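Work Package 3 (structural annotation) set out to generate three-dimensional models for the target panel prioritized at the project kickoff. During this period the team completed the workflow that converts sequence records into discrete structure tokens, so that structures can be stored uniformly alongside our sequence database. As a representative example, we reproduce one entry of 212 residues exactly as it appears in the project archive.
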Amino acid sequence: ETLCGLTISYGTLSTEDADMFPIFENIGLRGNITTVNPFAGYFYRDNNCVGVRFGYQHMKGELGNVDLDLGAGNDISMSLGGMALSSDSYSAAFFYRSYVGLDPKGRFGLFAELEASMTTGSTDFINRSGETEKATYSDNFRVKLGFNPGLAVYIFPNVCATVSIGLGGIQYNTVTQRDAAGNKTGSRSSSKMRFRLNIADINCGMVVHFWD
């Protein structure tokens, strides 16, 4: 049995979302993250699937202004603004997914997914807060082993809706920075292992099964 599918996620940030941080005031914030991931897989036995996934992510954000106020007792306050960030990335991954049914007819189920992925992309950061505009351009590379559990609901016998959420994993990142002329100005690398709920990594998808 084979399958193909598509997961899409879209999230936004705005001034209202910053109300949870009371030390910030007069915030002018807006941004969005869009992710598209087509994939295909093969069931080598019941409820066990291996496959490949490709992805594209676009992220864009602007910080018009923000005031930081830690209170009169701390005597610390500052203002920032005029910042913009834009990022595009492309990924390829191999995944293994195991399903567990929740009802006798198999219409509802949970799945656990392990994913090994490689991502490359670029990020542009512009700072207009000073007298002169400053721009930083970065080339990004990441390899990751992640864990993505989810819920599957069969709308039709061969059509399934899914919701999954990223719980972190092990990853290695490298970043190479360039100036406006394309000359390398610096680089850094990092690795980390972190498992936690990531509300920015929630994906809704649709899967179509093709029986042999």
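Residues 66 and 78 are 8 Å apart (CA to CA).
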